[in-house]
């Protein structure tokens, strides 16, 4: 039996669910943290979204149909939770999600958890100028090094559209970084 199939069986069995879930956390927590962090930027917000993601996974694992990889399913939940978080925060602050993203990026230098240098900060600002979909595709490909086939499963978009989005995003980032 494939390792992922075995994990899914253990996750859906009441007798082994808790131990299997701890294994799932160990396998995916760090990767999901950095994926979410690229969307919401703030460390504290990332922790909240990550926790909500794993709560949803734990509560809904029985509805996983196996039509995609387990990681793709969890990644999609994390992505949706991150966007929901941004929408909720922008509504609370009475600004749109892009303004919230700009505000967060502008305050990145003050974030004690941001360990980047000036070049990394400029790259993050360039990424923040992208439309949401291009930003997502760029982060998944550039930072997470995901294959287009995996991205296609997660985002439910064709590989061709993802390649085009990545290419356009990379060109916009290059233009931003060389504009000074």
Q: How would you describe this structure to a colleague?
A:
By secondary structure, the protein is mainly α. It has 2 domains: 1-115, Rna Polymerase Sigma Factor, Chain: A, CATH 1.10.1740; 117-180, Arc Repressor Mutant, subunit A (Orthogonal Bundle), CATH 1.10.10. Helices cover 75% and strands 0% of the residues. It is built from 9 helices and no strands. It has helices at 3-12, 17-40, 43-60, 70-92, 97-106, 118-128, 132-143, 148-155, 159-177. Helix 7 packs across helix 9. The longest helix has 24 residues, at 17-40. The mean pLDDT is 85. Keywords: DNA-binding, Sigma factor, Transcription, Transcription regulation. One of its GO terms (biological process) is DNA-templated transcription initiation. It holds the Pfam family Sigma70_r4_2. It comes from Gelidibacter gilvus. Residues 121-172 form the RNA polymerase sigma factor 70 region 4 type domain.
Quick recap:
The protein is mostly helical and 180 residues long. Helix content is 75%, strand content 0%. The protein has two domains: 1-115, Rna Polymerase Sigma Factor, Chain: A (Orthogonal Bundle); 117-180, Arc Repressor Mutant, subunit A.
According to DSSP, the number of beta strands is 0
- Distance between termini? 55 Å
Strand content range:
under 5%
H/E topology pattern: HHHHHHHHH
- Would you tell me which CATH topology of the largest domain applies? Rna Polymerase Sigma Factor, Chain: A
Any guess at the CATH architecture of the largest domain?
Orthogonal Bundle
Mean pLDDT: 85
How many structural units, i.e. domains?
Answer: 2
CATH superfamily of the largest domain: RNA polymerase sigma factor, region 2, helix turn helix motif
Family: Belongs to the sigma-70 factor family. ECF subfamily.
GO biological process, one term: DNA-templated transcription initiation
Keywords: DNA-binding, Sigma factor, Transcription, Transcription regulation
Protein name: RNA polymerase sigma factor
């Amino acid at each position: 039996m494939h390792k992922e199939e075995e994990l899914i069986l253990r996750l859906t069995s009441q007798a082994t669910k808790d131990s299997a879930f701890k294994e799932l956390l160990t396998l995916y927590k760090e990767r999901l943290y950095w994926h979410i962090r690229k969307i919401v930027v703030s460390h504290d917000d990332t922790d909240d979204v990550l926790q909500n993601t794993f709560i949803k996974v734990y509560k809904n694992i029985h509805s996983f149909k196996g039509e995609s990889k387990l990681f793709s399913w969890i990644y999609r939940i994390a992505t949706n939770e991150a966007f929901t978080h941004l929408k909720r925060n922008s509504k609370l602050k009475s600004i749109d999600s892009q303004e919230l993203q700009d505000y967060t990026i502008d305050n990145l230098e003050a974030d004690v958890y941001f360990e980047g240098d000036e070049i990394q900060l400029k790259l993050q600002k360039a990424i923040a100028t992208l439309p949401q979909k291009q930003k997502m595709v760029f982060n998944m490909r550039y930072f997470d090094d995901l294959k287009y086939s995996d991205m296609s499963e997660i985002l439910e978009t064709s590989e061709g559209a993802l390649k085009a989005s990545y290419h356009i995003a990379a060109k916009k980032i290059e233009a931003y970084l060389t504009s000074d």
